[in-house]
Amino acid sequence: xxxxxxxxxxxxxxxxxxxxxxxxxxxxxxxxxxxxxxxxxxxxxxxxxxxxxxxxxxxxxxxxxxxxxxxxxxxxxxxxxxxxxxxxxxxxxxxxxxxxxxxxxxxxxxxxxxxxxxxxxxxxxxxxxxxxxxxxxxxxxxxxxxxxxxxxxxxxxxxxxxxxxxxxxxxxxxxxxxxxxxxxxxxxxxxxxxxxxxxxxxxxxxxxxxxxxxxxxxxxxxxxxxxxxxxxxxxxxxxxxxxxxxxxxxxxxxxxxxxxxxxxxxxxxxxxxxxxxxxxxxxxxxxxxxxxxxxxxxxxxxxxxxxxxxxxxxxxxxxxxxxxxxxxxxxxxxxxxxxxxxxxxxxxxxxxxxxxxxxxxxxxxxxxxxxxxxxxxxxxxxxxxxxxxxxx
Length: 392
Prior knowledge:
This protein is of the alpha/beta class. The chain folds into three domains: 3-71; 74-242, Rossmann fold (3-Layer(aba) Sandwich); 269-391. It contains 15 helices and 16 strands. The chain has helices at residues 8-16, 22-28, 37-53, 55-58, 68-73, 77-84, 101-106, 120-132, 145-152, 183-193, 207-213, 285-290, 293-300, 335-339, 357-364; strands spanning 89-94, 110-116, 138-141, 156-161, 194-201, 217-225, 228-237, 245-251, 256-262, 279-283, 303-304, 312-314, 322-332, 345-350, 367-378, 384-391. Strand 14 (345-350), helix 15 and strand 15 (367-378) form a beta-alpha-beta unit. The mean pLDDT is 92.
């Protein structure tokens, strides 16, 4: 960690070139001979990535940035804030601290937070940055989180862990058994030292399969940001034997969409099927990831268009955790019939349909964009249909 980076002259140069093209900057040369140009470039690239993802860090003076890969792998502020609202108590230990974003927000809710990071340079950077952020209730440990947990040998209110999803060859992995540390191996240790354990995993994990790997799961949170699933959170509680509650959340600028259901009851939840009515609903990605296809129909009292379509309809408009549309017209999937509508531009979505969006655009000669929304799907009679919609 080269503290010369924090000199006023260098910080001003970094800020002045935050939007500069890196290749052009290198060709032109960096007029600061007393520090390696590569170090400055790394700071510019990493800080640039923080502008939207980590605005608190971006807007705080004297922040030192690690390499851009560490920034890519860290939680965003919006998801870190969400996680922080799930915890409370006196003590929490983050076993895989990384750049320290999660631990920082946990420290807003927990009196004493321990941040563990095995990489000595990254641990040093995080220690420095917490001082710049006035986060004085966080203790940094430069060691393996598992080793720190054993060495401290003390109870915590919460253990948080975000296992590394890179193997020895730096290739991405996502199965629990392939991550480091191996959650399946150490979950008993976690529950020994903390009543509550929060595990962050890849959004690629299958919920049913992962539940068979984990013990005493009380809640699963599928967390999306602007309709893109970013994290799966698994909340374990020592000695918990009840049913698993799944909470879906889609974090947006304007509002947050929430929906929850009992995981065990999903397969038996009652579903009404019908032809398209006045309004059409498309669940957000968090709900789709959680597999709440039947629960949505039962709890929100909307009909499903087809068992496998995952599109819903109702006669009266409701508040729905996803996109809402007014159905203007229903068409059979027929090239000649569609041509009569003279639709040359539209937004296209497929659900349970044999053709891709690109294939449909070529076949029907429809360009992307405009105010119309076309849904290509299958109805309850197993017929291919097109729903011409306007967005609400």
